[in-house]
Amino acid sequence: MQEYSSDALVGTLVDNRYLIRSRLARGGMSTVYLATDRRLERDVALKVLHPHMAGDPQFLDRLGREAKAAARLSHPHVVGVLDQGEDGPLAYLVMEYIKGHTLRDVIKEKGALTPRLALALIDPVVEGLGAAHDAGLIHRDVKPENVLIADDGRIKIGDFGLARAVTTTTSTGALIGTVAYLSPELVMGRQADARSDLYSLGIMLYEMLTGRQPFEGDVPIQVAYQHVNSTVGPPSELVPGLAGELDELVQWCTANDPEKRPVDGYSLLSELRHIRTNLTDAELDLRPPAAAAAGAAASTPPAASSADAHTELLGGAQLPTEVIRRGSNPTTVLSGRARPGGYGPLATPAEPEAYGYPDDDGGEHAEPASKRALRKQDRDAEKARQRAAATPSRSLRPGNPRRRGLVWILVLVVAALLAAGAGWFFGMGPGSQGTIPQLANKTVAEAQQLLRTAGFDSTTRDVFDDDVAPGLVVGSEPQAGQVVRKFQPVSLAVSKGPQLFPLPELTGKPLDAAKTALNGAGMALGPVAETYNEDAKAGTVLAQKPAKGTPAKHGTPVALTVSKGPRPLPVPDVRGKEQGAAVAAVEAAGLKAVVAPEPVFDRNVPKGSVVGQDPATGNLTRGGTVTLTISKGPKLVEVPSFIGKQVSDARRQLEALGFEVRIENIFGGFFGTVREQDPKDTEAPEGSVVTLKVV
Question: Does the pTM exceed 0.85?
Fold first, then answer.
């Protein structure tokens, strides 16, 4: 098959619909062009697959199924898949065109990013992955090149579905992925799930914070080997002063064992937003010179890193981007999950510690930071006590033995009192341990009473939540079931209900523009009803429900009523009718009758009646024009006399004048001569009868 160059395709029309205007990028599997959808008059990104892939029928069949699965995912932070098809030797995908740049461009330009900017850029990516994971899709090729940043600030992740189709149809069992971001299980040919995407995202966050990738090598296989056999170090090794929470976040995502990673995108989103809202401004804006230098060096990475700019083939099993069954993941989530729209980008999640970092013994949910800090305080106190006990002491003078005995008694009494006090404090008092009760979906008063009964003090904070009614407790920090000391305060997250956003104005817009507006506002498209409308052209939104400006939570379906254009009206047939009756019939049908300025002669239609109409049949829209042609009746023709002439000549000339000739023979008409004629030497209507008597 001939391979098409980018220059050859620019300016061509694909599938009689997509006009290619310029080439945007070229990768290992396809070339991406900027094209115009001539049917809907909008710009799109047209991904044309390389010929060696487009020639595989099994691959094209699977690509179609995966494109349909990706197209069903509608989320403001996921690039929409609009169409898929083939045009001769070309196989293509049509995607939403995002005018702007990629996260790779940001890293190349800025090097290491401040934590504030890194978390702000990665937040929508995690939310988009969470929506995909919730819909049963995994990406398998998360990398900066697939994070698109529009000129208006929108951030979207793209290229869902392509990797699955490629890896499932390669005859060599090759693995598709970008080696710098591949999870260990993909390198080893094992099954991928949502946690594989989060490993790649953790590598990407490491690169954003430090300006370089954690693993490098001269050839891709060296990098792949490190993914399996090495551990991603904390970013603070390259960026001194980086907050410990960011180290833990990166290492949580990049744990070699998938069981020690977040369960999916929404699980990670909750903790990421919690960290983002609890770091100080100094921690968020940290940008040491060393990190900036590392970022500058990262703009020209070694051979293996630069080779990873495109998705490539590595030896391995065929484990692609795929649809995963709900509930198939063995990792258990201990509490509710953050939802898009449940918290704004700077909001605090309801239960930020419901998804712990991996603990030392490999458990899935580790202790929260508060409990780790308390254990550290206990260890420090014990060390201080041991140092004090090891320090020798002596009296400055021998003193009275009796007095010394009293002193020892007092010391023992005080020690006993202190021991008793410590025993009470740690056994029954504020220092004793207690279990946080279940508080979700209870009123604040009920939750506070349960905590007081258990010996805890509490504070409250308001959060948005899509599922818990306003005024009820969403959860607590520490979370329910944890064992903590009673002097540790418990924070109650109280629901304010779902966060509401005003619905955009959709009426008057074309249907495609209305869908784009809904997508940008984070809303869903509801039922679409069509109706005829005399004033709006087809495809225009006539009404929406709920109405514009109505407060609604993200994901709310909006029903649309769309115009089918003016209602078609059948044209009545009024030919042969008298002019007045014909005009009335046309107007009664909702159309406009126009009489042609010139009437015509017609031997069959009486004068004043309709002899013709345009159009004669079919449909018109209301107010459409029907032109009526009126008959002047038959034309009057002068009838010459043929008496004394041969009947054959008389018949021929009379018929040429448009008359009907009737012959009456007298005595057999032996001579063939016209003896009498009626009428003669006068005018008669065209088509009338002229009688000839012949002898």
Answer: no
